[in-house]
Structures are given as structure tokens and as C-alpha cells.
């Protein structure tokens, strides 16, 4: 197991040890009656359903109680609008995490007339992990009873219901969808939990059949299967893996290790937040899609993250690209659409993707491995300088493709500059000679605009020496200089 995967496993184990010290929570329940006097059995429901309001996103001030119609009136449930049901995941202590209120505010920003309901299953979620994982079936039944009640008692269409489940909560949403009397409109799985679910039957976990549309964001799939904090396999109609899904930018494990070494238990508390960073990034990417609708984050269908890193999957033909988050296009296919993208370290997370293709020439055959380059893009709206790229191989008389991305919206691309970085002084492979290649053209494709552009050397051909100088390329003239939507 790698260092990061081991650290993730230790996080789960340590949290489990803390949770084992608590006794299982029990709740007394009553059998409510509806307004007709007919007795209904909701006695098994332990989960609570808090309808939060835009003016009080941080507080549980009103609860919808299955079987008690007056609770819908008292909480001012909007029967003519959408309903979002937010389901949290496993927790060490029975307290909400800070992302809950942020998501509530973001949902109300985009859908101000909607109902945003928080499912409180904190008592069941704060047990030993394996117990909490098995509790997802019980909580899923609670949620199903709730949505069935509002559909049957109030003729509220489940086509207006969107379940959002994080970690274990994603599997709760899946169980609820399976048990709902009618098809729920949408389930969004935010990094569904991996341990105990990677190899589980579809009846026990989130799956594409659980709603009319199921979209999933995977942000922490590092480590061996079933030890990965987030589930690795595709479990929706669309499964999106930001930054390959294994680890997110800005979530530094080296910093976590340092804090553990320096501060002991206090360091563990701080490190805990960093360990959750990649897992929780799924939520913040969804929040970003609500808060920055004008900057949609694009994802691209691809067979593997290795192919995506080569820039080979930036096509939008036949639904091959989609938005991440709330504004996703609800495309259903027979097989899950596996999609990839890059993001920035912090919100707004959107970046612009480019595929770069370069053909290297030389008089003599040459092959170099793991070569570092810097590439700069200049456009009508901005510029992005010295973006590092490492090519696994540079060989003469061959074409190489790679992906670059930048948070800067450079507008219409005008100039490309390329520099071949010199090795460190500790690397003596090129001490007695300086490798050199010739480049005639650089081809660039934009994922966001789908434009293909060709850039030519000002002198017809540019000679690029390792560690010496910069090669500059400008937009070529002629009919092949630009190809749109290809």
C-alpha cells in the first residue's frame, strides 16, 4: 500500500477506534396519526428531516415528521417547487460538518423557492464505521418512507425530488431510491464511501437504477479497492473523476504527516481535516457549480485517466463532454459514462483544458525520457506563463500529445511559447552535449471552445535546445489554421 493510501486507512481505523467507545444510540418513537384518524406506523423512523430556510441556513428550526401533516404546514413546505434532500456521511462525533450550511446556502441561491431538507442520522452515523455502514440500509428505509409519504399524502411528485448524498450518505440515497414507490428524479453521489461497498451487491449500494438520473463525483479513490475512502467503480449514469479521482490539488499529505509528527493528538485533529480534504472536495465542487454558474466546470468522457493526461479526450461530440455539478446534462447510456477533468486548488475550481501536439525533428535519432518543459499561452484576454509539463518520452521524428490546463481565461489564443528545461546539476546525462530538436508547428485544441488551432514558427522552423532559449509560435495563416467543432 502506498503512503497516502496507508494514511487514508489509518484515518478510517483511528476514527473507528474513537467511535467504538460509544454505545449505540436509541430513540423512542411514537405512532402518529394523520388528520383522518387512520393509524399509520412510522414508529421505526429514527432519522429526522429538517427543513432549513434561506434566512437560517445554519439552524434546524423546523422538522417534517412523517405522518404529521401539520408539520408540513408549520415548516412552510413549498408543494409547487423542487425538493433537495441532503444526506451526510459517517462522522466521529454526532455533529454536523461545516459544509452542510454552505450547501444549503448555495442551493437556495440557485433555487430560492425550493425546499432544502437535511436528513439527520447523526446517532447512527457516529458508530464504528462498519456499524454505520450497515446502518445505511435502515436510514435509506427512513428516507424512502419519508418521500413515499409526501408523494402519497400530498400528491407531491417525486420528479421534483433530488437526493444529494455524501460518502455513506450516497449509499443511503441509493437505498432510498430503490425503495421509493415511484422513481426519484435525481440522485447525486458525492464521493460515495468505498470500504464495505466496493464489492457490494447493487442492492446494498448506490447504482444507476436508483433514480431517473444518477450522477457521481469521485474525488478520493486512492489505494487498493475496498480500502479506498471513496468507491472506485462507476456507480451512476455519469461518473466524474476530477484530477483522476485519486487526490485533489491543495490537499497535501506531506503537510498532514508533518503535523502528526510535530503536534501529536492536536496535530491529528488538524491532519484529520486535510485527510478529509480530497473526500470532501466532491461537495465543494458541487457547491462551486451552484455559486459560479457562469463558470461551468467541464468534464470529458475518456477510457482512462492516462489517455486523458495525453489530451486525447477533449471532444464534445455525441455527449462526450458534460458539466460537473448541478447543471449536468442528464444523459443516460447503457453503460456508465466515465469522465475526467482538471480543477484548481480552490474555488472557483474551473480551469481551461488544452491538448497540445508537437512533432519533433532532428538530423540524428534521439530518445530522452522524463523531459521537463515550460509552455506559455498568450491570448486576447490574458496569458498563462511557464506551465510545467513532463513528457515521459521525447523522440525525434515522432508526434507527442499532452494536456495542459490553466485557471486563466486567455480568450482567443494567439501565441504559444515553449522552453526545454535544463536538468539539475546532479543529472550528468547531458553534461557533454546539449540535445536539440526542431519544431515546425504546434497544434492546440481547446476543450472548452472545441477550436483546433495551428501555430507556426516565425522562421518556418524553430530549433529548441535543452536549457537554452525559447521557441515561439504564432497563429498560422491559411485554410488549415483553424478548425472549429472538430
UniProtKB/TrEMBL annotation:
Q: Which family does it belong to?
A: Belongs to the AB hydrolase superfamily. Lipase family.
List the InterPro entries.
AB_hydrolase_fold (IPR029058), Lipase (IPR013818), Lipase_LIPH (IPR016272), Lipase_N (IPR033906), Lipo_Lipase (IPR002330), PLAT/LH2_dom (IPR001024), PLAT/LH2_dom_sf (IPR036392), TAG_lipase (IPR000734)
The annotated topology with respect to the bilayer is: Peripheral membrane protein
Q: Tell me which UniProt keywords the record has, alphabetically.
A: Calcium, Cell membrane, Chylomicron, Disulfide bond, Extracellular matrix, Glycoprotein, Heparin-binding, Hydrolase, Lipid degradation, Lipid metabolism, Lipoprotein, Membrane, Metal-binding, Nitration, Secreted, Signal, VLDL
PROSITE patterns per record: PLAT (PS50095)
Coiled-coil regions listed in the entry: none
- Work out whether the entry's keyword set contains Transferase: no
Q: Which organism is it from?
A: Gekko japonicus
**Where does the UniProt annotation locate this protein?**
Cell membrane; Secreted, Extracellular space, Extracellular matrix
Catalytic activity, EC = 3.1.1.34
The UniProt entry, under PANTHER family, shows: LIPASE, LIPOPROTEIN LIPASE
Among the Pfam families in the record, one is PLAT
As its record notes, the protein acts as a catalyst of: a triacylglycerol + H2O = a diacylglycerol + a fatty acid + H(+)
What name has this protein been given in UniProt? Lipoprotein lipase
Q: Which residues form the PLAT domain?
A: 352-475
User: Taxonomy-wise, where does this protein's organism fall, top ranks first?
Assistant: Eukaryota, Metazoa, Chordata, Craniata, Vertebrata
From the UniProt annotation, give the residues forming the signal peptide.
Answer: 1-21
